[in-house]
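Hello, quick one for you while I still have it in my head. Could you read through the record and tell me how the tokens relate to the sequence? No rush at all, and the record is pasted right below.
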Amino acid sequence: METFAVVTACDDKFAQHTSVMLRSLLENNPKTTFRIFVLVPSDFPTNIQSMITNSMPSGTYSLTFIQVRYQGLSALKIWGWVSHTAYYRLMIADLLPEISRALYLDSDIVVMGDISGMLHLDLSQYPLAAALDAFDASPLFKRKISLGQSVPYFNSGVMLLNLDRWRSENIGRRALDFAATNPQYIVYWDQCALNNIIRGNFLVLPKEWNFQRADVDFDVTSSKSIERAKRAKVLHFTTNDKPWFFRSTHPLKGEYWKYLQRTEWKHYVEPDITFKRMVLNALRSHLPSFSPSVERIYTSIKNHGRIWNSPDAPWEASPLGKHLQEYTNFYLSKNTILGSHLEHIQRKIKEEMYGSVAAIFSADNPFLKCREKLAEYVTSFADWEVLCLKPEDKADESLSPYISGELYYHIWQCAQNNDELKEIIAHDDNWPDDALIDYAKARSCAYHYLMNCVNVVRADVNDFDHATATKADWFRPFVKSMLIWKEDVYRSKIGLPTLLPNWELARVHSSFFTCVLNGARDPLSHWEAIHSLKHSDVS
């Protein structure tokens, strides 16, 4: 019987998940003999090591723990749930000098079937075989990590390694050096370093050998999506949607729990479990009739927006449904910024819209819920739009002297006052200005789509007075007020002089938000009456 080397890495925090991965590997490949090497920190607890060993099934395999001692690890960039053990895979060629070929597997994996087909692939011309990363292959991301646009980007969680070529080309050490000297290009730890060294010279694995979270249709109720995931040989729980958390929405999280029950961690309880989440999960999964609003939202998202305005009128056939589909087709066409996003990101944006519409129609007061969503999206749009708007691109906003387009040239300072951008540059302060602007433009477009879709819903919740249709509607003045307000806020925070004739006018424009949110029948007239102003005179 042929023997294959399998390598993984973990610290004590991921030991449980490593046990699940190894248990699933051994159970689903009984005809293959494995030499398993677990790379661990030098202070790895002996009792945890024993728990991993005792979690394995009987069979013909060996299990060896190798303590890693590397002085330069502490200087390498990490964030989130990942520890420095992520970089251990870069040392495999040195740690296992007698091994010429090995399969590396991340801890957050469940092996679903026979992997012998992958183990026998011809690697004579490549240093490794890996699947393309399903989440971060966008042009903006590649530019951020200094990878050419035409260079494929792989996921390092499942790699078949030609270790002889690793040694002859010094790949591991070069990747470690790259990670140490170029932290500005490191987002996903070892993976970004390896991709920069390999530069596309790898054998591409089919998705079935590394089926990632983004490969799973985000409509988790889709039977086709679940069947596709079930056929995968290796299920990889990428992103922070980990199956060991109660909040996880992965449709196959049960596969993790199936093997967990056969390990020393079988009594594990999710750290994020709460009574509220338990009740909501039960309502969604088992008792939908006891929660009409939850069930309506669930059903609408499940059917991609199939909401009933009346018991006899399905969503797709209604005028509103057709209008929203037209907006969606326009905003997500191939020639638009949103249309250039990866498919799963486009799907998330659409589901945000359909979910919001579902929430509006299932609310106790759809009119106020619609106002709430509209106010949220318009304000968010304004917050991003003023950051990426150039003076020559102001379009309708050019009618206002208080929306300048100047913030575009101060994007770095503005980013320090935007929570989302601030979090991004906290992880990497080497983002170039154009990348920050591209990010702001993408967010602005997403909210532009969302706010216009919700604006269309207004007529269906009695928020549009047809008797006064000839009168100017309040929506566009509201958008302009939010843009003026957000521009002034940023200018104040980064030390630019205000463009407004007096400081109080910023507060006046911001109060339009309250008029919309509080449900004034005509927020524009209400706002003008409160301040004794004509909106057109101050915008």
Remarks:
- Residues 125 and 375 are 57 Å apart (CA to CA).
